[in-house]
Input
Amino acid sequence: MAEPRPIHVLQLYPRDMNIYGDFGNALVLQRRLQWRGYEPILHSYDPEDEFPEQVDIVIGGGGQDSGQDKIQQDLLRIGEKLHTLANSGTPMLMICGLYQLFGHSFRTREGREIKGVGILDLRTEGTDTRLIGNVVAESKEFGEILGYENHSGQTYLGPGVQPLARVTKGAGNNAKDAHEGARWKNIVGSYLHGSLLPKNPAIADFLIAKAVENRFDEPIAAQIDPSGANQPIEELTRQARATATRRPR
Amino acid sequence: MSRLPSSPRTVASALGSVGSVLIGRAARTVTKLRGGGGSAFPGLVVEKLDPHFLARTLHRLPRGVIVVSGTNGKTTTTKMVVELLQGQGLKVFTNRSGSNFTRGVVASILEEVRLSGKLDADIAVLELDEAHAVHFVKAVRPNHSLLLNVMRDQLDRFGEIDTTAGMLRTIAQHTVEAVVLNREDPRVRAIAQTLGTQQVDYFGLSESLRSHFPSDDDFHSAPASAADHPHADVVLEQLIEGGGRFTVDGESVTTSLTVNGAYNTFNAAAAMAVVRQALGDAVDAPALIDSLSKVSPAFGRGESLTVQGRPLDLVLVKNPSGFRLGLSSFAPGGVATMIAINDNYADGRDMSWLWDVEFASLAEEGVRMISGVRAYDMALRLKYDDVDFDAVEPDLKLALTRFLQENPDQPARIFCTYTAMLALRKLLGAYTEVEAF
Output
């Protein structure tokens, strides 16, 4: 048997930024790495923890406003490390609250300015309107993206990033333009829960492919679906996606 | 808007409660004649015509009003509180109809009230949906409130879990005498700090049980330490087969329960705490335990049916904590399992919550059938947890038929979301006696 080849996945702030089921993203990455013969090593990073030495993929989720307050200082503290990783092409997935904090700033409804880590060229404004519901969005890179949004912060992209997708159902980044999420280098930012990766494996495989390329300088191995008794994962995914596109907002 | 002196509001006010009762009953008759099943419409009519009807009627009760709220377990806990109080010899008014909003309460009162507007009861126990409870407690200040928990299923209705906690806080602040709080829920526990003169009592868990009932915050980290936990009047010490061991006022009590599941056993601690608070020294302790052991489950909350000679459990799951508890409360060995997940408004549209439940405990036995609108989301979830399943059939009727046919000799268990449970109960009516709702 071949030597196990580890891929280190860093999950940012699972304690305070986990409330919307974004753990599913970590699970999907782990399984899909395993199904390709890699050994996923999941590092949970909470405030004041030691930052792991080796990081191949970084993921982060959404939380309460109170959770965001708790982690913001620590995020700035590790900002330089994250900038270095981002600049060197480390794949990252930032959802909702951490997507916002990966931008320059978040201005609250009361006018308070919360500084973000400034990796993505975007700004967010708190509003009184909560954008809630199913989302369907179209991406040139990943095809149709499906998920669920639940946010009162509205995000506007600067010229340094591209939108991840164009919304065809739902709101996405804000109530004005049709942009959903952001793309820059190997970073994907998005408002979508669901969790995002189970029903959008194209994004999961993009993150894995970039990590494997960076670490081992090779294309990713084909995925071997381990449990033969069930329907194949591609078929289950296709059906779950088909349902999601039909559901009301 | 014109203000005609003969507007219905003026008429009703002039007539007082008698007028309101008559008008409300007329509206109820009209609703029934039109074939409407909704119980809130007559309440709506009276509320519009006589907004003080509710407060006036409930404030006349000699022992006042107990309110039960929280995201999970309201219905069963309310039923327990009612039956415990009845076991203490009290006449209890409650909102049985299941429409747990202000109008529903008015509608329930209209069914039972005398023409004078007087309720024939000593005390009212009302289950209130968090969102409507705020409106309610501003009109009718409860004497006691029992606040159970803040879990995540309400998020896509109210936006944020902290908002829901704020609603429960408002209920507590409008409570006149005393509140009972869940010591184990950090957001509910914190309400105590915002209160003035009200007495605060707690119900809680023993340290060994805490890991069994993780809160949403605990799921990805270690539970909060025991150090800051205040004294609890009623503590669930241990789960035993078919019951629980409690510490009540320092005394150890073991009792069997007719309701099943770990969460219902914890709800029993909550119910005892609020009854003890409301009755004070007058409480008859042996009668309390006796009543508790006899409380039957509320509609669909851990309900056991017999279908074609085999036991079939319906387990309502509507959020990660509830699903995790459902899985750990019922051992999967020797049981045919079905899971039915809908995403209608009452279930919550967001499927994210399935990813915060670990399904590894089902891996050994596998799952026989997955159904509901979001059957394939659930199938995908199990796939990523390496749990095998036999079939996926989104149509509940086809799924149930096949599930019963293919698993004839085994006890069966169906984990289902709210609207899936409503549909399954209806379908099961063809096989067995299912209590009308």
In short: The first strand of chain B starts at residue 65 and ends at 69. The radius of gyration of chain B is 22 Å. Chain B has a mean pLDDT of 81.
